[in-house]
Input
Amino acid sequence: MADGRLKAVAKRGAALPATALGTNLGLIVLGCLLLGLSRHLAGQMDHILFDYSETSLAALVTFLGAALLVTRQPVDRATLPIILVFAALCRLVFLMPRPHLSSDIYRYVWDGMMQHHGINPYRYFPADPHIAAFRDNAIYPHINRKEYAVTIYPPVAQMFYFVATTFAASLTAMKLTLYAAEAVTVFTLIRMLVLLGLRREQVLLYAWSPLLIWEVGSSGHLDGFLTALLALALLFRMRNQPVLTGLALGAAVMTKFYPLLLLPALWRRRDWRMPLTVLGVIVASYLPYLSVGKRVFGFAGGYVQEEGISTGSRYFLLELAHHIPGLENLPAAAYYAFCVLCFVPLLWWCWHLSASADLAAFLRPAAALAFALMILFSPHYPWYVLWLVPFVVLRPSFTMGVYLCVIFYGFTTMWAEPGAKMYFLSKWMYGAVAIAAILQGIYEGWLHRVLPLARLWPVTEEGKA
Output
């Protein structure tokens, strides 16, 4: 009799549905943990209890746990505010401390400061004697390449720096402006999630991403602003607003050049308003800086040489090919030809969908173009991949998600150094991505018929079981 009652209780307990309250409590616990890890990174760098890789791994596991909660468990109206509050707190703990992982933000502040003094940022490198009077102890000593390189950043990035330093030429002002850009990204992603009929709470994939928290919240990278412009371009394209799409995409291109690759995906066939607007933004953005002539392109050429982009020495897949017997002397030109061949089917995919009545059909080829560029380009800095995150939010991809995770974690390990260590790290990261792609292909090919992921948890909206 007693055994029967125990079995009945156990059966009822096993059948109890998950609740939104449980989701929210779980998010609060995980949010506190993520906040604690952020504070640990921000305030204890000189005597850090855990090294970078241990801290990043803990943050990554916490984030993945939260991602499973908001995508697989019931949510209610309180869930989104919880997500946004902890997202803001995890960034604000980095507002005052100096960045430890990169010094790029000092160049941003310097460029903005020069413009407020009426100096074209493309005219002088920071150590030039002509502007020696502006050297200070807070910004100037920390600028990288200050002895020989003028700014590398395109005109819209310079305009952003000008705005960010309007009230104060400081790291704090620059970070606050970047946080505001991230708020735009979050709002825009929420709007698109609603249009796609997906949970708003899925924005956690961006808001709580440790990659964003570390690289924008802590290091203050320009890519936070770039991602906001990209998100706006995607939203305007989804709403079939070609001129606004062109304005946002053109501004993104003039912040960092590589989003130009997305133009074929965002273009609607036979509608030339968007590409013409992009061209107009590019031309117009250069006009205020043309007083330096050809030097308006800044240090871009020097950077291409320094980073091995022109010689091919930076590309992991090319280096991997050099380890194959018979391909030891494969030239960079052959690799570039291979890259072109990789993009041909993707561009055809964009063309095929460019006249689709489904206004969200462009998302998958756009994500594929961006992802392919990163795989082929082999970025040596994790902030280069931030622009992929909006695509993961809107169209979750297991392969791209694994890529972002291994990039974030890998570059916090001892192997993230040029040379043999970087080659080993790249083999590990690309191997993980290849395995993820195979598993995703197997699942999407046939396994989903017998094991739908939706069966793993009772997914309900607004807390209804």
Summary: The longest helix spans residues 420-445. The radius of gyration is 24 Å. Residues 17-104+165-455 form one domain. Residues 5-16, 454-465 have pLDDT under 50 and may be disordered.
